[in-house]
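Inputs:
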Amino acid sequence: MKKLVLVLLIVTLAAALPVFAGGGRERESERDYDFVFGKVPYTFEHAYHQSACRTLEEYAAREYNAKVIIIDGEANAEVTLAAIENLIAQGVDAMAMHTGDAGLSAAAVRLAHAANIPIVTTLIRPDIQTAPHIQPMETASSQYMGAEAARQWKAAHPDKPIRVAMLNFGGIPQIWEMRTGAFFDGVKSVDPNAQLVTMLNGYGSTVRSMEVTLDILQANPEVNIIFGANDEMALGALAACEQLGRGKMNDGVPVSEIIAGLDASSAALVKIFDPDSSFKLTHGAVRDVARAEADTMYGMVTGAIPVKEYFETQVLSQPIDFWNTSLAEAQRFLELNFFYTGSLAADVDAARSR
Amino acid sequence: MSTSMKKNIKQFITSPTFLLFLIFIALNVYFSLATNRFFRVNNYVNIIKQSTMIMIVGCGATFLMMTESLDLSVGSNLALTNIVYTFLAVFGIPFLGIAPMPLLLAGGIVILIGAAIGLINGILITRFKFEPFIATLALLYIGRGLALATVDGQSIRTGIPDGFGSIGNDELFGIPYLFIIVFFIVVSFMLLERKSVLGKHAVAIGANRNAAFFSGINVDRVIMGLYIMTGVLAGLAGILTASRFQFGDPRTGVGFEFNVLIAVLLGGTPLSGGKGTIFGTMIGALIVAVLGNGLNAMDVVRFWQTVFQGIILIGAIIFHSQMKSRGRAKLLAAGTRG
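Outputs:
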């Protein structure tokens, strides 16, 4: 009897949980929307994608009276494609996908077009260019960061040669063009003798990047500029440096190394504006990318944008760094892009006092 | 209606598998009421497509678990065979100067690789007396590592030959090939379970290994055979996955082994072995797929979905243990009356 009651309790809990988890409002409210859009983010584990999805949901509802169904791509090709299939099966009016894989993007475009559903891709250009694409202009911002990092290092340590280490996602060729390669180009524009010591896969994860960076610094202690291809990896690199007694700056003057990341999340900016931390640069574009996705989906659904023609909507990826961005500008960036409601200055102070 | 038929129907209606089927129906009703986007023909086709790999590998895994064994390497086996199949079809074997292979030949080689992984599992467990958990965990790592090393961690998406995606995407008289393949495999394994000695031997080994041994069953040979069979099925799933997505990816199948395990457990095959049904596993696989799809349709984020999977698993285990206790109580009561 006790077990039966327990089973009933579990069933009740299981039935009720989706409602608490945010899924219960859908049936009543969907009728009130003019459109249903789908979105497959790269992975919901990254702050960037969580904010991008939230922005997309709010903006699409406000501007186009559209509901957005979000299915996590889980940074996995198989799951991403299954998510696209699910959205097609559920009959959305249009969809957006953000993945790190050009071939996967192409497969998704083919599937969506076969089902006559408009699709827009983001960041990684698909192998086949037959659908609109949103392109954050990361290359120029990454070059800028590389050059700035090199300038700051040379100013503080003119006698120490620049040695760069990088953490990438692995298996995404366009990341070299937009992030890692562009960053190194920026470094070389200041110091042509700079060397790229190593580039390893940080798997987009803080924990994995910390482990990888510990290995890098063990083998190459001379590394003095580290670039993580997202903020999670840069934060992992910083944690590894701190574990080794590095990761420090002297009121913004480089001591052991300079770390750069990408996405400009609040966790990153708290470190960047700490004058004693070696994580100092990042860039990102959340709001404008999400808005461009919504605008493009609406345009395709209403016939204003051709569904099967390639064109790029370019979006600025705003650089933010300790030396050239004011705290007020960074605060504003976080509010607009990451739904940040705190005080960056207070958060930086709190982090320093720990 | 004959008495025996009535008896069979009564037996089925009171079986845990039938109750599980009712739970599956209840889930469908729940999601249909909760969201407008669930109850659609296209969505059901999609759900079945997405559960085909679990169903295929689940057939072998059910037999294994009946013997109190398990295979954690099926996800890596799937990844390795997926990438090798694509590699052979696109590049051949360059260092031996062998040109890209016809799909049938590449598929044959890959099935052998799947079988070899099963064979190694079997040898480690039966000859070297490794615990199944340890042996198959080791193969999980080896398989995944080999899959990544084969292509330097890159996926293969260019140069895919014509016809590569046929078996995973095309249809015969409006029925996807995938469904036809799954149907034949499931029916074959149901027959194996019910009509062959293999099914009886698997149950006997799981119920009491020593008794099975002394009653003349070659326990090691049966277990070895089941690992090879599961390896072959995982290899086939690797080929079908590559064909369905029309690319090869060494990161395919991460966590697949746990989805198979959950489907088999939900289906009523306990880790302690001694019983189980293929039909139950199929319902288990569909429950996993319907749950994921329904929660997606309800806009529930993945973090919560994993919580649900855990809750459903706990519920299933309690449900099955409840049924087991009832069965025991009935037996005792019958014994007392007798």
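Remarks. Chain B touches chain A through 50 residues (CB under 8 Å). Strands of chain B lie at 171-172, 175-176.
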